[in-house]
Amino acid sequence: MRCSREAKIGEVPTIQADRIRSALTATEFALRGRRCGLFVLDAGSVRLIEGARETKVDAPCLVWLPAGNPARLKLSAGTPGFSLRLTETVIGRAMPAGGLSGHIRSTIGGRVLAFNTAGTRSFDRLRSLFDEIEAELSGAPPGSDMAVQTLVSLALIHIWRAAAPKIERSVALPSRIVQDFLGLVELHLTQHWTVGQYAEALGISRDRLNTVVRRAIGRSPHSHIQARLMDETKTLLLQSDLPMAQIAYRLGFNDAAYFNRFFQRHEDVPPGKYRRLQRPTGGDDDRRASYAAWP
Questions:
Q1: At the top level of CATH, which class does the domain 2-162 belong to?
Q2: Is DNA-binding a UniProt keyword of this protein (predicted)?
Q3: What is the assigned CATH class of domain 224-293?
Q4: pLDDT (tens digit, 9 = 90+) per residue, 57-112?
């Protein structure tokens, strides 16, 4: 028997939390598509079926299955525990930043089987995190999206810990630094992080970040951040009817006057004039529709 809570985008579940209660008959879970699955079982046993391969695992145990790995789990009668099934989008947003990001990505990119041996505290922490995620999903209180993202981020750390990782102290590859930097920019663009904050999140110095980003994309981290802000600004100017103050707010500018100066510094004209010059003059029917124009 299971008690389920979930969050959705439209009709598509993005995260599903199931509390698995001890049942008199076997219970089966299926993992399909681009969804990851975490199963923490307190007692009993489970048969993990992946194509022609079948693995029997005795509880207490943790099973992590990455996206794109179709699998079925058959829980024996009397097997309690809980499960979280999440889309790759949820995982991407919740991925911890900093020096451990690469290690965690590597671990959860494959199957994880871990056992609750003496001294393993990650299982207890995962149970507590599941309780909190379940509570956020059931009531959907204000800020629940951000709370769930934070809780999932902590859960990923404890899955990594339960896998008993061996951390090798090595210098991060430039390609990894650039990839992680570009991803962080997309996540924190409207928070106006400084280059120093990005470097700190990546666990490297500001000078090293400047060097590897310049070599890879031909411009400095600061220039890339500014260019992305301009890209988003132009999209909102040309594909929405939002007033300047609202566009400024959406992009993280608390002062509309400063937003105007920022835009003019890069484009040589104020944003209002840029909109008038660039947009079609055939009327509303000629204007391009955009999700950015939605409330």
A1: mainly beta
A2: yes
A3: mainly alpha
A4: 899 999 999 988 788 899 998 899 999 999 888 888 888 876 677 778 888 888 89
